[in-house]
Amino acid sequence: MQASVNERELVLDMLLQITRDGEYSHIVIKNVLDKYQYLDKRERAFITRVVNGTLERMIEIDYIINQFSKVKVNKMKPVIRTILRSSVYQMKYMDSVPDSAICNEAVKLAGKRGFVNLKGFVNGVLRNIGRNLDKISYPDEKDQEAFISIKYSLPEWMVKQWLKVYDEETVKMIGKAFMEEKPLTVRFDEHKIKKAELISILEKEGVTAGEVPEIPCALYLSGYDHLSALPSFCEGLYQVQDLSSMQVALWSEVKAGDQVLDVCAAPGGKAIHIAELLNGTGHVEARDLTEYKVALIRDNIERSGLTNINAVCQDAAIYDPHKKETADIVIADLPCSGLGVLGKKPDLRYKMNEKTEADLVELQKKILSVVKDYVKPGGKLLYSTCTIHREENEGNVEWFLKEYPEFELVKEKQMIPGRDAGDGFYIAILKRVNHE
Ligand SMILES: C[S@@+](CC[C@H](N)C(=O)[O-])C[C@H]1O[C@@H](n2cnc3c(N)ncnc32)[C@H](O)[C@@H]1O
């Protein structure tokens, strides 16, 4: 079997798992890259790019296919629809393979998957699209919602929602930022290793490390193949974390000896960052809902070598009387719609809808109303999400301040993709000012 056929078959199965079976793209990609470690760097990069790219552009791709196919995308067999989608992505957005080869591989794959009678259909649609790719008619730009939806592959309901809060240029900037490839960012413990020493270790491993001017404990990494194969990663010299997420611990202004409770901590990024800043003092309890998630936190704690942090399985929506007024800082980095991280998790835009968003707002309110009681008088509650959805962010904080006047807002920030360096992210610091 040719390597290229194999790659395309993997891509097909991965996209089916994500779009048909509802699995998460980042988990599917990670599992495949872990399983097929023998693939070379180019093949791994190809698989990742085609899967992510197809998901990033899927609304536009379906719009194109529908112009050239009598059978509309939503009426096609999942295998056929998926073969067409990933082929159109490669034809429009990747120069590495000629259109004729993309088309031949797609036809072969349809046959191999038992759709011998649809080989002609796949061939016809793809050849037609290939001939007309530069003549596609897009919605008029004056039809703001439809134009932005197709151009940036964002569901129309989402575009409509964002246009109520952000101006048109900002929504386009966000859509564009989600499609740009960004280098990986990692955070290291400045008490454990000097930046220059870490950069030199990484360079010896063949990794390019760039400094992040605004965050001294962060580095941009590029040029590596498989991060978990690097000795520096296995030794816990750094943790993968987005620049926006790093702001939570930095904003917390944690002091030596503080008691910190992170109520939704897996896989542990922010909790471990705070434990590092405590520099061997104080304590962080990192909680999450399931034993599976808690095991992820424990793995990361072990890799970090820290001793002032532990992980506990506990539902944040259920009050734990033992924790009443015990924490100097409560971190509530709550489950959210994730619409700020579509650049890394492009499939979330298809998994989320207005009803699931509204349910999340209720869950966030519920958890905030429970965990606020763990904050000591004078202590802080840090609320954060990785979304740009106003109701989950400023909306929830407005509600919280009205419900619980014993808290006041110290500061808040909505980070916007394209304008700020990292993911779309929201942080609010709420201080417990009296004991009412
Ligand atoms: C945004 S993620 C947390 C990321 C984490 N703070 C970090 O920096 O690595 C939200 C977490 O909330 C957890 N979660 C969801 N519902 C929960 C609940 N009722 N109680 C506790 N954790 C919950 C999820 O399992 C998920 O790990």
From TrEMBL:
<feature type="binding site">
    <location>
        <position position="315"/>
    </location>
    <ligand>
        <name>S-adenosyl-L-methionine</name>
    </ligand>
</feature>
<dbReference type="InterPro" id="IPR029063">
    <property type="entry name" value="SAM-dependent_MTases_sf"/>
</dbReference>
<dbReference type="Pfam" id="PF22458">
    <property type="entry name" value="RsmF-B_ferredox"/>
</dbReference>
<protein>
    <recommendedName>
        <fullName>16S rRNA (cytosine(967)-C(5))-methyltransferase</fullName>
        <ecNumber>2.1.1.176</ecNumber>
    </recommendedName>
</protein>
<dbReference type="InterPro" id="IPR054728">
    <property type="entry name" value="RsmB-like_ferredoxin"/>
</dbReference>
<keyword id="KW-0949">S-adenosyl-L-methionine</keyword>
<dbReference type="InterPro" id="IPR006027">
    <property type="entry name" value="NusB_RsmB_TIM44"/>
</dbReference>
<keyword id="KW-0963">Cytoplasm</keyword>
<feature type="binding site">
    <location>
        <position position="288"/>
    </location>
    <ligand>
        <name>S-adenosyl-L-methionine</name>
    </ligand>
</feature>
<keyword id="KW-0489">Methyltransferase</keyword>
<comment type="similarity">
    <text>Belongs to the class I-like SAM-binding methyltransferase superfamily. RsmB/NOP family.</text>
</comment>
<dbReference type="InterPro" id="IPR049560">
    <property type="entry name" value="MeTrfase_RsmB-F_NOP2_cat"/>
</dbReference>
<keyword id="KW-0698">rRNA processing</keyword>
<dbReference type="GO" id="GO:0032259">
    <property type="term" value="P:methylation"/>
</dbReference>
<dbReference type="InterPro" id="IPR035926">
    <property type="entry name" value="NusB-like_sf"/>
</dbReference>
<feature type="binding site">
    <location>
        <position position="333"/>
    </location>
    <ligand>
        <name>S-adenosyl-L-methionine</name>
    </ligand>
</feature>
<dbReference type="InterPro" id="IPR001678">
    <property type="entry name" value="MeTrfase_RsmB-F_NOP2_dom"/>
</dbReference>
<feature type="binding site">
    <location>
        <begin position="264"/>
        <end position="270"/>
    </location>
    <ligand>
        <name>S-adenosyl-L-methionine</name>
    </ligand>
</feature>
<keyword id="KW-0808">Transferase</keyword>
<dbReference type="InterPro" id="IPR023267">
    <property type="entry name" value="RCMT"/>
</dbReference>
<dbReference type="Pfam" id="PF01189">
    <property type="entry name" value="Methyltr_RsmB-F"/>
</dbReference>
<feature type="domain" description="SAM-dependent MTase RsmB/NOP-type">
    <location>
        <begin position="174"/>
        <end position="436"/>
    </location>
</feature>
<dbReference type="Pfam" id="PF01029">
    <property type="entry name" value="NusB"/>
</dbReference>
<dbReference type="GO" id="GO:0008168">
    <property type="term" value="F:methyltransferase activity"/>
</dbReference>
<feature type="active site" description="Nucleophile">
    <location>
        <position position="386"/>
    </location>
</feature>
<comment type="function">
    <text>Specifically methylates the cytosine at position 967 (m5C967) of 16S rRNA.</text>
</comment>
<dbReference type="InterPro" id="IPR004573">
    <property type="entry name" value="rRNA_ssu_MeTfrase_B"/>
</dbReference>
<keyword id="KW-0694">RNA-binding</keyword>
